[in-house]
Model the fold of this input.
Amino acid sequence: MQNSSDPTDKPKARPTTLVVDLKDLKAPWTDWCASHGLTPSEAVRRVLGTVISGSAKGNSPAPESVSAAALRRCEIRLSSDEHTALMRLAEEEGMTLSRWFQALVRLHLSGRPQFGRQEIAALVESNQQIRAIGRNLNQVAQRLNEGSGEGVSTEQMQGLRDAIETHKSHVRVLLDANGKRWRP
Done:
């Protein structure tokens, strides 16, 4: 007969358990949960249920920065269906389940966009395009400062304006898509 109080006996992880490193969000999260009379697991299930059902709203303040030294783990238990649905959502966003959950919590605490790999790649490309536009504008400004407006055509100026407007449109689409992803 096994002794159930044996400290070497560790409970087996359930397949519906989600372990998330909340970093420095742990203290504000547990404070928020306590102030609302919820356990962290109950609160997480409510947040996830809201996101999955499509009625999430983010309006709570969050800490300004995340320190690697202040990281904390948070564990929640989910039904098998919830776990499967979240795994699918995280995979669609190119994130691990832990990173997806962390982004969800941070969005709800801060109200700020949380970007996945594809969005970050799009922003990097966007910044490269802005740098190219900046170089072109510097060349135009140099010519104008030299008193030589020669070589600067209205078409070139319109091209730069169009490029800036296109960039702004792409960034707007990216931010809108981000908001819709986290707040369906």
The chain has two domains: 17-110, 117-182.
